[in-house]
Design goal:
The structure holds two protein chains of two kinds.
Chain A: H1 4-13, H2 17-56, E1 60-67, E2 73-75, H3 81-89, E3 96-109, E4 112-121, H4 127-132, E5 135-138, E6 147-151, H5 152-158, E7 165-171, E8 177-188, E9 199-202, H6 203-210, E10 219-223, H7 230-243, H8 262-272, E11 278-284, H9 285-288, H10 290-328, H11 330-339, H12 343-376, H13 402-429, H14 432-438
Parallel strand pairs in A: 4-9, 6-8
Antiparallel strand pairs in A: 1-2, 1-10, 1-11, 3-4, 3-7, 3-10, 5-8, 6-9, 7-8
Chain B: E1 4-15, E2 18-30, E3 35-39, H1 46-53, E4 61-66, E5 69-70, H2 76-86, E6 87-90, H3 102-107, H4 119-132, H5 148-160, E7 166-170, H6 178-195, E8 198-203, H7 206-209, E9 214-219, E10 222-228
Parallel strand pairs in B: 3-8, 3-9, 6-7, 7-8
Antiparallel strand pairs in B: 1-2, 1-4, 4-5, 9-10
Helix pairs in contact in B: 5-6
Classes of the chains: A alpha+beta, B alpha/beta.
Bound molecules: adenosine-5'-triphosphate and magnesium ion (MG).
C-alpha cells in the first residue's frame, strides 16, 4: 500500500501508449539483437568442440612423446596399459577409447598426386567411425588390412573407385622415406569442409609402415558422454598419471606478449623441452579449439559495443521524452508536492517509470530473441556446408548464458535510469508554486 | 491561539530587471474553524498570499506561523511534511491525478509520509468522505470521466482525507458554472461546520464572498478590509 509511487509510475507508462511502445520497442530490439549474438556465441564453442570431437574421435586425448638421440621428437605411445590403469584407478568413465596414428602422405594413382593426412585407426572394430562416416560407395564389409577410406572430394581428385590400388609415400618415424599400397575400400560422403579432408586407414597397417610395433600408436582419444566433463576428466587423469610417476608435460604454458593460444604455446614449450624416455601430454578438445574461444570473446565484445551504441541512441530518446513528460505533467508534479510528496519521491516517480520501461522492453526483447532463436534453429542447413563446424547437426543452435542475459538487462536498466535521471532531478527540484503556476 | 498568523509578509517576484511587488506587507490572523474568503480583483495578490500560507511559496520577508509555529526557517522536506500533516489543497483546475480513480485520488495523501491508519479505519473514512461529497457511485471512475463539479468534489475529499486543520482553496469555483460553484462552496461550508476545518478560499465572485464568515479584501498587494461576520470573534484592524 506504500507503493503508490511505483504504482503511479507504472500507470503513467500507459498514458502515452504509442510513445512507450516506441521506446520500449527500441529497447526490446536492442536486447533482441544482442541476445541473438550472445546466444550464437554461447553455443559456438560447444558446437565447434563437439564437431571437432566427432572428427577426432575424442574429447580428451593422451599423446606420447619420445626424444631420439638426434633430438627428434617422436610421437608414440609404446605401452598404454599405464594410461588405462590411471583411468581405472581414478574411477573415470568414458564411452570408448580410440587409438590413432597419423601420418602425412602423398597419394599416387595413375599419374595423379595429392597430399593427405592419413588417420590410422582400428577400422575393423571402431564402431564410432561406422556410425559417423556415411559411405557413398563401397561397404564396411569390404574392409581389409590394407584398406583406405577416402572422401568423395579426394577420390574424385585422384579419380579412383573402390577396389583401386593407391600408392602412398611418407616418412617413417625415424625419418626414412617409405611407400605402402592401399586398396580403396569405400568412398565417404563429404560431411563438411573438415570431414572431406579426413582419410582413414587401418591402424596396424600404417603403424607397421611407419615403424611402430604392434600395440604401439601415437594418440589415445577418449570419447565421453558429455563434452562438459572433458576438463574434469583430463585433470583427474593427469593427476592420476602424475601420481603414478609418469612423466608429463605441463597442461598449460603462457607466452607473454605472444598471440599464440595457450595450446599453441604448450606445444611450442614441449618442443623446446628435453627429457628421457616416454613423456605424455594430456589435452582436451577445449584446448584445441581455444582459438575459437577468441572468436567468442570477439563476438561478445561486439555485442557489448552494439548494445552501447543502440542504447546511446535510445538514451537520447528517453532523455528527450522524459524532459517532455516533465512539462506535460508539471501540474501533477506541483499538485503532488503540495499534497505532501517529497522531492525524492518525485524523482523516483520518474525513475520508476524509466525502470519499468527498460525492464518491460528488456523482457520483451528476451522473449523475441528466444522466439527468433527457436525459428532459426528449425532451419536445416544440411551437413554439407562450410558452416557445418559451427552448427549442431546442420542446424543453428543457441545458448544464452543466463548471467550474460542478466548483465544485458542490468546495463539497459542502468543506462535508461541514467538517461531519465536528469529530467527526473529537474522535476524534483521544481518549486511547487512554480510548477502549479506554470500549469495554468 | 490563531491557527494561522501572517506577520508583515511581503513578496516580490523578479521580472526581468525589475521586481514586482505582489504582496506589500500584510498581517492578519485566522482562527480555527473560520470560513474565510480572500477577495480582491485580479492581480491583487490573492494567490500569492494563499501560496505562502500553504507553504508552497516563501515570503520575501515577514513570517507565516502555522499553529503557532514559525515556518521561515524550515527546510523543503519539513515544509512538505507540514503541508501533508496540517494543510489540504483545493485547486482552481481540480488537479486530480489522472491515472488514479476517484477512490485512489482521495486515498493518495494517506499513502504518503508516515500516516498510520488501520486499513479498516482508512476505508471507513474514505467511504464516509465519498459519501459526504456524493460520489459513491463514481468511486472507480477516472477523473476524465467526471464533470468539473464532480472533480472538484473529489478534490475536496482528497483535501480532507488527512484530517488537516486548514484547507486552502485558490479560486475553487472559477472553472465551474455559478450554480455548481455555489454547491461547491456550500459543501465546503457544510464540512467546515461538521468537522470545524478551517477553510480559506480566494475568489473574485462577490456572491461567493458573502458566504464567508471572515473576509479579507485585498487590493494591489495590501489588505483593504478585514472583517469577521456572524459574531465569529472580533475583526482585526486593517493595517497598512
Ligand atoms: N511568478 C511571478 N512572476 C512575476 N510576477 C508575478 C508572479 N506571480 C504573480 N505575479 C504578480 O504578482 C501580482 C499578484 O499576483 P497573484 O497571482 O497573487 O494575483 P491574484 O490576486 O491571484 O490574481 P488572479 O485573481 O488573477 O488570480 C500580480 O501583479 C502578478 O502579475
Ligand atoms: Mg490567483
Amino acid at each position: 500500500m506504500k507503493y503508490i509511487i511505483p504504482r503511479i509510475a507504472l500507470r503513467n507508462l500507459s498514458r502515452q501508449k504509442k510513445r512507450s511502445f516506441l521506446l520500449g520497442g527500441a529497447i526490446a530490439f536492442g536486447i533482441m539483437i544482442v541476445t541473438l549474438i550472445n546466444g550464437f556465441a554461447g553455443a559456438f564453442i560447444e558446437n565447434v568442440s563437439e564437431n571437432f570431437a566427432y572428427l577426432m574421435a575424442g574429447h580428451v586425448f593422451v599423446q606420447g612423446a619420445e626424444k631420439t638421440p638426434s633430438g627428434k621428437r617422436l610421437s608414440v605411445i609404446r605401452d598404454d596399459s599405464i594410461i588405462f590403469s590411471a583411468v581405472r584407478d581414478s574411477g573415470l568413465s568414458y564411452e570408448f577409447a580410440t587409438k590413432t596414428s597419423e601420418v602425412s602422405a602423398s597419394l599416387f594413382f595413375e599419374g595423379k598426386t595429392i597430399r593427405q593426412n592419413l588417420t590410422g585407426l582400428d577400422l575393423a572394430t571402431n564402431l564410432f567411425l561406422r556410425e559417423r562416416v556415411v559411405l557413398r560407395q563401397g561397404s564396411w564389409d569390404a574392409i581389409g588390412p590394407d584398406s583406405i577410406i577416402l572422401s568423395e572430394k579426394i577420390a574424385s581428385r585422384l579419380n579412383v573407385l573402390p577396389g583401386d590400388r593407391i600408392t602412398a609415400s611418407f616418412q617413417t618415424l625415424t625419418g626414412q622415406n617409405n611407400i605402402a599400397d592401399f586398396t580403396l575400400a569405400a568412398i565417404s560422403v563429404d560431411s563438411s569442409i573438415i570431414g572431406s579432408v579426413m582419410s582413414y586407414v587401418d591402424l596396424a597397417y600404417i603403424n607397421e609402415a611407419i615403424g611402430l610395433k604392434s600395440g604401439e600408436y601415437m594418440a589415445l582419444g577418449f570419447m565421453l558422454n558429455d563434452l562438459k566433463a572433458a576438463e574434469a576428466f583430463a585433470s583427474r587423469l593427469y593427476t592420476s598419471m602424475a601420481g603414478m610417476g609418469i612423466q608429463l608435460f605441463d597442461r598449460s604454458a603462457n607466452e607473454e606478449g605472444s598471440a599464440a593460444t595457450p595450446f599453441q604455446a604448450m606445444i611450442r614449450t614441449q618442443r623446446s623441452e628435453d627429457w628421457q624416455g616416454s613423456r605424455y601430454s594430456v589435452y582436451t578438445i577445449d584446448d584445441i579449439v581455444s582459438q575459437a574461444k577468441q572468436i567468442v570473446v570477439a563476438l561478445d565484445g561486439a555485442s557489448l559495443i552494439i548494445l552501447l551504441v543502440l542504447f546511446a541512441i535510445v538514451m537520447i530518446g528517453i532523455n528527450n521524452t522524459f524532459r517532455m513528460v516533465m512539462y506535460e505533467r508539471i501540474k501533477e508534479i506541483g499538485t503532488m508536492r503540495a499534497v505532501g510528496v517529497q522531492r525524492k519521491e518525485i524523482r523516483s516517480l520518474f525513475l520508476n517509470e524509466a525502470l519499468f520501461l527498460a525492464l518491460g522492453g528488456a523482457v520483451a526483447g528476451l522473449v523475441l530473441a528466444l522466439i527468433a532463436m527457436s525459428i532459426l534453429s528449425l532451419i536445416d542447413f544440411g551437413m554439407n556446408t562450410p558452416a557445418f563446424m559451427i552448427m549442431k547437426n546442420g542446424h543453428l543452435s543457441f545458448f544464452v548464458p543466463p548471467l550474460r542475459a542478466v548483465f544485458n538487462v542490468v546495463i539497459i536498466a542502468a543506462l535508461t535510469l541514467l538517461a531519465a535521471y536528469f529530467p527526473a532531478k529537474a522535476a524534483a527540484k521544481m518549486e511547487p508554486a512554480v510548477a502549479l503556476r506554470t500549469a495554468k | 491561539m490563531a491557527i494561522i498568523e501572517v506577520r508583515d509578509v511581503k513578496k516580490t517576484y523578479p521580472l526581468g530587471k525589475v521586481e514586482v511587488q505582489a504582496v506589500k506587507g500584510v498581517s492578519f490572523s485566522i482562527e480555527k474553524g473560520d470560513f474565510i474568503s480572500i477577495a480582491g480583483p485580479s492581480g491583487s495578490g490573492k494567490s500569492t498570499i494563499l501560496n505562502m500560507i500553504g507553504l508552497i511559496d516563501k515570503p520575501s520577508s515577514g513570517e507565516v506561523l502555522i499553529e503557532g509555529r514559525p515556518t521561515s526557517g524550515l527546510s523543503d522536506k519539513e515544509l512538505t511534511r507540514l503541508r501533508h500533516e496540517v494543510l489540504g489543497f483545493i485547486f482552481q483546475s481540480f488537479n486530480l491525478i489522472p491515472v488514479l480513480n476517484v477512490w485512489e485520488n482521495i486515498e493518495f495523501p494517506l499513502l504518503l509520509g508516515k500516516t498510520k491508519v488501520s486499513a479498516t479505519e482508512k476505508k471507513e473514512w474514505i467511504d464516509w468522505l465519498i459519501d459526504e461529497v456524493s460520489l459513491s457511485e463514481w468511486r472507480t471512475h477516472k477523473p476524465n470521466e467526471l464533470s468539473g463539479g464532480q472533480r472538484q468534489r473529489v478534490a475536496i475529499a482528497r483535501a480532507l482525507v488527512t484530517k488537516p486543520g486548514i484547507v486552502l482553496a485558490d479560486e475553487p469555483t472559477a472553472n465551474l458554472d455559478s450554480s455548481t460553484g455555489e454547491q461547491i462552496i456550500e459543501l465546503m461550508k457544510k464540512i467546515n461546520r461538521e468537522l470545524s476545518t478551517t477553510f480559506i478560499f480566494s475568489t473574485h465572485d462577490a456572491k461567493i464572498v458573502e458566504v464567508a464568515d471572515h473576509i479579507i479584501r485585498l487590493k494591489d498587494g495590501l489588505i483593504v478590509e478585514n472583517k469577521r461576520l456572524n459574531g465569529a470573534g472580533s475583526p482585526d484592524q486593517v493595517r497598512e
